[in-house]
Structure formats: structure tokens, C-alpha cells
Design brief:
heterodimer; A: 99 residues; mainly alpha; 3 helices; 0% strand; B: 220 residues; alpha/beta; Rossmann fold; eight-stranded parallel beta sheet; 8 helices; 8 strands; binds adenosine-5'-diphosphate; binds magnesium ion
Chain lengths: 99, 220
């Protein structure tokens, strides 16, 4: 039988790096070797839109198409375009009322 | 106290078995042992839930990537041995655990695939050593070996030795008793007789003694 016993006194703690910078160093060499984070880093997916209001708009088909094309061109949601149009409309209103 | 990290990005290489065999044998030999289950598959925790834990053993579960360094440090105290079991993937958790190790064990079956993937962990250790400016002792553990050594095993061993990699002798043989630990919980002395029980116990004790020797060498 291979009995052996353990000398607890010989098992001393040794200091090891643990600062944020040393962890960052470890992460960096690890990432280069393909050892990558697995846990979600902060929130996943796109942040929630603050645009929670709705408009109910039926428009002529060609207007619908033009709005859709312009939104696509600008890379924004149609709601953003409507907000801009509304802003322009309000400016115009203010201009008229000052006259 | 010393921290032993068991790492290989290959699933099924024998990490959890190595952890439980080593931990239970070291505790049997008189050490206080803390096992840290850093694998979301919770192999160690499943083992721990099967039976009352043997004397001198504690298990900590559900350790996350962001907590691993802190949790290891919390348990790294004089007079205890901490053994960290990891998931079989290349993750940041693995590299962070390695940064806290006094000894890294890299289990592998004696196959070219296991060895190839095991060598990636060795390469990572080398780079962490350089980045952190500290030596990180490490050794390969052959697992699930047969009484008659395969040609593949001889070839892999020779190649590792040429590269200066330590290999723990004896390896962990393929034994029904080792896999049965996860069926019954407890240690090799408490589970019902499986196959060549005496052979398994002798192998496990000699293996744990060899790791202990390696660890003492690393702590010099
Ligand atoms: N030395 C061994 N003898 C018998 N079975 C083993 C041995 N090592 C591992 N196994 C079995 O092989 C499988 C994978 O081992 P495991 O330790 O869970 O690997 P890992 O943790 O690396 O994924 C398990 O079913 C385990 O019971
Ligand atoms: Mg495992």
C-alpha cells in the first residue's frame, strides 16, 4: 500500500498577483490564444429604445414608400423621420405666428 | 495554501475525475482540501450531492469568471489545499484560474487529440508566466490509461519530455472505481466495491503522493 502523509506545515500560502492590472494582463494573453470571455459582458443585445409613443397613420401608398425609402437611406427607424418632420413643422408654425 | 488548477480545454480529458480522486486522497492522507467547482456543468457539485462529504473536504460551487480570482484568494490560506476544476473549453475563467495556481495539472487521455489540445494549455501557461513575471509549475497527468501502454502514449510521452514538460507518475489508470465516484459520491474507501478496488486505491494513493511531491517541489 502506498500510504503517505501530508506535512501541513510545509503547505504555505504563496503570494500571487491579483491586481486589476495583472488580471488584465492575463486576459490579454489569454484572448490572443483564444481563451475568451464566456459570460455576458454587461447587457446583451441592443439597448431599449426610449421611443415608446405610437402614432396611427394611414397615408397614401406613394408617401408610405417614400418615407420608408428615406428612413432606409438615413439608416433610422421611420419614427425618427416623423419626429424630424414634426420638428420642421413646429418651426414653421413658430415662424408664422411671429409674423 | 497551495492552489492546484486542473485544466484542459478538452472535454472528457479526465479533469473532474482527477480533481475528485486527488482531493479525496489528499484529504484521506490528512490534508484539509477545498474543491472549487468552476464548471457550469457542475460535475463536482453533483459528486458532492451524492453522499456526505468525506472528512476534511469542502466544495464551493457556482463560481463565475468575474469572481474566480477573488474566490481562489479567499480559500488560499496556510494549511489547506485548494483544487480548482474547470470546464473543458478555452475560456477566460481558465486563464484567470491559472494565474492563481501553484501547480497546474493538465489531464489528458493518451491520444493525439487530447495531447494536441492539452499542449494549448501549456502554451497559455508559458505566456501567462511571461506576462505576470512568475513561474507557474505544471505537469501532465495521463488519464484512463491501460496496463499495457499504447504506442501512442509512448510517443506522446517522449515528445512531451523532449519539450521539458513534467509528467506525473503514475498516471490515473482506467478504473471502474474512479467513474463510480460520481455515481455514489464519497471516496474510494466509502463506495461499494467496483472491479479491482485495491488496484484503484493503490493507483489513486500513489498518484496523489506524486502530485503532493510535485507541489512541494513547486513551493520550494
Ligand atoms: N481514470 C478513469 N477511469 C475510468 N473512467 C474515467 C477515468 N477518468 C475519467 N473517466 C470517465 O470519463 C468521463 C470523462 O471524465 P471527466 O473526469 O468528467 O472529464 P472532464 O472533467 O475533463 O470533462 C467520465 O465519464 C468519467 O467517469
Ligand atoms: Mg469536468
Amino acid at each position: 500500500m502506498n500510504d503517505f502523509s501530508i506535512d501541513l506545515a510545509s503547505l504555505k500560502r504563496r503570494a500571487k498577483p491579483g491586481s486589476e492590472t495583472s488580471v488584465a494582463k492575463t486576459d490579454k494573453v489569454a484572448e490572443a490564444r483564444g481563451f475568451v470571455p464566456r459570460e455576458p459582458q454587461g447587457r446583451r443585445g441592443r439597448p431599449k429604445s426610449p421611443r415608446t409613443g405610437q402614432v396611427h397613420a394611414k397615408v397614401m401608398p406613394e408617401v408610405a414608400e417614400q418615407i420608408s425609402a428615406e428612413a432606409r437611406r438615413q439608416g433610422v427607424q421611420q419614427g425618427v423621420l416623423i419626429e424630424k418632420a414634426w420638428e420642421l413643422y413646429r418651426e414653421k408654425q413658430r415662424g408664422l405666428s411671429r409674423k | 495554501m497551495p492552489v492546484i488548477v486542473v485544466a484542459s480545454s478538452k472535454g472528457g480529458a479526465g479533469k473532474s475525475t482527477t480533481t475528485v480522486v486527488l482531493g479525496t486522497e489528499l484529504a484521506y492522507a490528512g490534508a484539509d482540501v477545498t474543491l472549487l467547482d468552476c464548471d457550469p456543468n457542475r460535475s463536482l457539485s453533483l459528486w458532492a450531492a451524492k453522499a456526505p462529504l468525506p472528512e476534511r473536504i469542502g466544495v464551493v460551487s457556482d463560481i463565475t469568471e468575474s469572481a474566480v480570482v477573488r474566490v481562489i484568494k479567499e480559500h488560499d490560506a496556510d494549511g489547506r489545499i485548494v483544487i480548482v476544476d474547470l470546464e473543458g473549453i478555452a475560456s477566460r475563467m481558465v486563464s484567470r484560474a491559472i494565474s492563481q495556481a501553484d501547480l497546474v495539472l493538465i489531464p489528458m487521455r493518451a491520444t493525439v487529440l487530447d495531447a494536441t489540445i492539452g499542449v494549448r494549455s501549456i502554451a497559455l501557461i508559458a505566456e501567462e508566466e511571461e506576462a505576470l513575471g512568475r513561474n507557474i509549475a505544471h505537469a501532465v497527468v495521463f488519464t484512463m490509461t491501460r496496463a499495457i501502454r499504447s504506442k501512442q502514449q509512448n510517443g506522446i510521452e517522449a515528445s512531451l519530455r523532449r519539450q521539458g514538460v513534467s509528467i506525473i507518475e503514475p498516471p490515473l489508470m482506467e478504473r471502474a472505481a474512479f467513474s463510480a465516484l460520481f455515481e455514489f459520491g464519497g471516496n474510494l474507501r466509502s463506495i461499494p466495491e467496483q472491479g479491482n478496488m485495491q488496484g484503484a486505491i493503490e493507483n489513486a494513493a500513489a498518484f496523489a503522493a506524486a502530485v503532493y511531491g510535485e507541489l512541494r517541489g513547486a513551493l520550494q
